[in-house]
Write a structure and sequence with these properties.
about 325 residues; alpha/beta; six-stranded mixed beta sheet; four-stranded antiparallel beta sheet; globular; disordered N terminus
C-alpha cells in the first residue's frame, strides 16, 4: 500500500504498550504469565510476531448475468497487528464491508490471500468475533440467554455460561436488565448486549461493521468509550468499518482510506499518535485531532466526490 501521508502530530510522550499496538515480545511475555496463572494465552506464542490479519493482494469480484464480472476490491494489501485498532473509511459502496467479510472468511478472494496469524484462512475465521451494523439478538430469549447462548453453542455448560454471561452484562452496564427481552431495550442497550455476546467467547480478532451507525450522536460516544475501555483491558486486533471519520480517528491506531469503486483500492494510511487512554468527546478538542482530521479528509473527500453525479458536491 502506498503511504499517502504521515500524521503531523507531536510524538506520544509515553512509548509504553498502553499507547500503541503490542509488539510481539510483550505479547509473548504476557502469554507466559497467563500460562503460569492457568489462563489462555491472548495470542498463540508461535504467532506472536505474525499479523493478526494479513490481506495480500486481495481482489474480490462478483459474477454478473451475461458472463461479465464486477470487481468490488482490487489488489488490497493490509495488515492488522495483534492488539492494534485499525479503522477503514471510504465512500459509500466502495467495498469496506467486502474486505471485512473476506477477513471473516465469509467471502473468498478472487485473487490474493487472507492470512490469520500467519496462516492462510480456509473457511470461516474461527478466531474472530463479528459485530454487524444490525444486531443478531434472538427476540424470544432474554438478555441473559442471548449472551449465554454464545458459549452454549461452543459446548460450555449452561450453569457456567449463565454465570459468565452475568459477568459480561455487568461489564457493559446491563446487570439490571438480564431478564428483559430485546424489544424492551433501547438501541444503545441492544448494542451493549450484542457486544457482550461477541466478546464473551474471547475472540483474538474483532471485526466491526458500522456497529454504531444506527445510534444517535450521544449514544455513539457512550458506546465508543465503552468499546475503548473493554479493548484496553485485554487488547485484541480490531478491524473497524465506519463512515464517520471523527469516530475512526478517536478510536484507532491507524486509519485506512479506500478509494471510490468499482475496483476500489486502499489509497491512504494515516497513523494516529494521539495519547491513550482516550475519551471520545474530549479527544476531539485536541488540536492534533483537528490537524489529522483535515489531512485525512483532504484525501477522503476526493474519493467521496467521485461517487456524486455532475453538479453535485460532497
Amino acid at each position: 500500500m502506498r503511504r499517502m501521508a504521515q500524521a503531523a502530530q507531536s510524538p506520544d510522550p509515553d512509548p509504553s504498550p498502553a499507547s500503541g499496538p503490542l509488539p510481539g515480545a510483550i505479547i509473548a511475555l504476557g502469554n507466559r504469565m497467563r500460562r503460569r496463572n492457568g489462563e489462555r494465552p491472548a495470542v498463540p506464542q508461535a504467532a506472536a510476531d505474525a499479523a493478526a490479519i494479513g490481506l495480500k493482494g486481495v481482489t474480490i469480484s462478483f459474477a454478473l448475468t451475461g458472463g461479465a464480472r464486477y470487481t468490488a476490491v482490487d489488489s488490497a494489501d493490509l495488515t492488522v497487528a495483534p492488539g492494534e485498532f485499525v479503522s477503514v473509511v471510504g465512500p459509500t459502496g466502495c467495498g469496506k464491508s467486502t474486505l471485512l467479510n473476506a477477513s471473516a472468511g465469509l467471502l473468498r478472494p478472487s485473487a490474493g490471500a487472507v492470512e490469520i496469524f500467519g496462516r492462510p484462512l480456509a473457511g470461516l475465521n474461527g478466531r474472530a468475533g463479528y459485530l454487524f451494523q444490525q444486531d443478531a439478538l434472538m427476540p424470544w430469549k432474554t438478555v441473559l440467554d442471548n449472551v449465554a447462548v454464545a458459549l452454549e453453542t461452543a459446548g460450555v455448560g449452561r450453569a457456567e455460561a449463565l454465570d459468565r454471561a452475568r459477568g459480561w452484562l455487568r461489564r457493559v452496564g446491563l446487570a439490571n436488565f438480564v431478564e428483559r427481552y430485546p424489544h424492551m431495550l433501547s438501541g444503545g442497550q441492544r448494542k451493549r448486549v450484542a457486544l457482550a455476546q461477541m466478546l464473551i467467547r474471547d475472540p483474538e480478532i474483532i471485526l466491526m461493521d458500522e456497529p454504531f451507525g444506527p445510534l444517535d450522536a450521544q449514544t455513539r460516544q457512550i458506546m465508543g468509550n465503552l468499546l475503548l475501555d473493554l479493548w484496553a483491558a485485554n487488547r485484541k486486533a480490531v478491524l473497524f468499518i465506519t463512515h464517520d471519520l471523527e469516530e475512526a480517528i478517536a478510536l484507532s491506531d491507524r486509519v485506512i482510506v479506500m478509494s471510490a469503486g468499482p475496483a476500489a483500492r486502499l489509497v491512504g494510511e494515516f497513523p494516529v499518535s494521539l495519547p491513550r487512554p482516550r475519551d471520545i468527546a474530549e479527544i476531539r478538542l485536541d488540536p492534533a485531532f483537528h490537524r489529522l482530521h483535515k489531512e485525512i479528509w483532504s484525501h477522503l473527500r476526493v474519493e467521496v466526490q467521485k461517487t456524486y453525479g455532475p453538479g453535485e458536491t460532497a
